[in-house]
Amino acid sequence: MVMQIALEKMTDYAKSVSVYSDGETTVYKVGEDKFNLICTEWNNMIFGAHEMPAFGVSLHRETVKAVQSGVWAEFNFDKELESGGMPYEKLLVNVQPQNSGFNIIRYTAKHGYDGRCFYYDLVNKDMSSFYDCLTK
Predict the structure, then answer these.
(1) Distance between CA atoms of 105 and 43, rounded to whole angstroms?
(2) Which is nearest to 68 in space by CA: 104, 91, 92?
(3) Residues 130-135: contacts with CB within 8 Å, 24+ apart?
(4) Taking the chain (136 residues) in consecutive chunks of 10 residues, what is each chunk's mean pLDDT?
(5) What pLDDT score was predicted for residue 2?
(6) How big is the CA angle at 83 (ends 78 and 89), to the nearest 5 degrees?
(7) What is the pLDDT of residue 55?
């Protein structure tokens, strides 16, 4: 049975966060100080944001290639969750400090990264604090 949650509560259910930086991966698990800091910065960043329809869809092959460069954060869950009728086991975000909006790419074991995304408009904020948290 898939658990339905509000997307803005997803850090409450995350079991780890994978941080990808130019092809290098570091995983922070629930309970670790860095995991807690990442979740706090994420929640601060999305506070007051507007969830909107995504501008496009993710293609698995292209997403896997894209993660090899830049900074990405992936929230990992121990079961399938669903928000807004869209299931996921992981949520992946390309973190660019100047961005004031971004896609959240869903991953499921059945479809990989293929499919519709979520989108957040940060409303007069950007991703710089979250980026700094991930890269320092």
Answers:
(1) 17
(2) 92
(3) 130/41, 130/42, 130/45, 130/73, 130/95, 131/71, 131/95, 131/96, 131/97, 132/97, 133/37, 133/38, 133/41, 134/19, 134/21, 134/38, 134/71, 134/73, 134/95, 135/21, 135/71
(4) 92 98 96 98 97 89 97 97 96 98 97 97 97 96
(5) 86
(6) 25
(7) 76
Q: Is the pTM of this model over 0.90?
A: yes
Task: Give the type of residue at 135.
Answer: T
CA distance linking residue 24 with residue 114, whole number of Å:
23
Helix-strand-coil percent breakdown of the chain, rounded to 5? 25, 45, 30
> What is the structure's pLDDT at 73?
98
Cβ atoms of residues 73 and 93 within 8 Å: yes
